[in-house]
Specification:
6 helices, alpha/beta, elongated, 26% strand, Ribosomal Protein L25, Chain P, Alpha/beta knot, 231 residues
């Protein structure tokens, strides 16, 4: 069944107006008609079954019927990926959402080639991934942050796990604490950046094997390993 992420409160018997984009999607892409049913969620009130009451070029309206899933919270998990090329970044946003990340904080490093992020495109990637994988929430998405600022902004109780292309894993990755995975750009972190990262308390370096992984592959690999241990 079709699932949509919306940004309005949800409750039984409530009428929910659809955005122009959602109206277009249901009418012209999914070929839906009044009387059909879809699922909606907003990240706060769980998932709800809705009737399509009205659907035209100018207006879309839903009627909330009943709750199908209560809201549940995922364990706090942050991904801090260095910005990479657009298509690869899309892949990271999609897979991070599927793998249970609750927060995405893109990072600017000395070797980052891309310096800007299309935030609206990124939000659409995470929303669509959440709709498709049956999540009840969408990851919180931050604007790109310089590495030094990120190291200061992360909560003190968060364990920062820096993926290291070379070297050894310095400690086990905890599963009972808030964790943030830091993934470098195509060229990796500079020695100076690695020194700064190492100086932050609650930091672990994690080695993923002898082969050098692409940045987007490294994000998926570490999140998959973590998900296997936690879920």
């Amino acid at each position: 069944m079709i699932r949509l992420f919306i940004t309005v409160p949800l409750a039984a018997a409530q009428s929910v107006p659809l955005s122009e984009a959602h109206t277009h999607y249901l009418l012209h892409v999914m070929r839906q008609r009044p009387g059909n049913q879809i699922l909606v969620f907003n990240g706060q009130d769980g998932e709800w079954l809705c009737d399509i009451v009205e659907l035209s070029k100018k207006k879309g309206l839903l009627q909330v019927k009943q709750q199908t899933q209560k809201q549940t919270a995922l364990p706090p998990l942050t991904l801090c990926p260095a910005l990479i090329k657009k298509e690869n970044m899309d892949f990271v946003f999609q897979k991070a959402t599927e793998l249970g990340v609750t927060c995405i904080r893109p990072v600017l490093t000395q070797r980052t080639v891309i310096s800007r992020l299309n935030s609206e495109r990124a939000r659409l990637q995470t929303q669509e991934a959440a709709e498709q994988c049956e999540r009840l929430s969408v990851p919180e998405l931050f604007e790109p942050t310089p590495l030094r600022r990120l190291l200061c902004d992360l909560p003190a109780d968060t364990v920062l796990v820096c993926l290291s292309e070379r070297g050894k894993t310095t400690a086990p990755v905890p599963t009972n604490r808030p964790v943030a995975f830091l993934v470098g750009p195509e060229g990796g972190f500079t020695p100076e950046e690695l020194d700064e990262i190492a100086q932050r308390p609650q930091t672990v370096f994690c080695h993923l094997g002898d082969t050098i992984l692409r940045a987007e592959t490294a994000s998926v690999a570490i999140l998959s390993c973590y998900r296997f241990r936690v879920f």
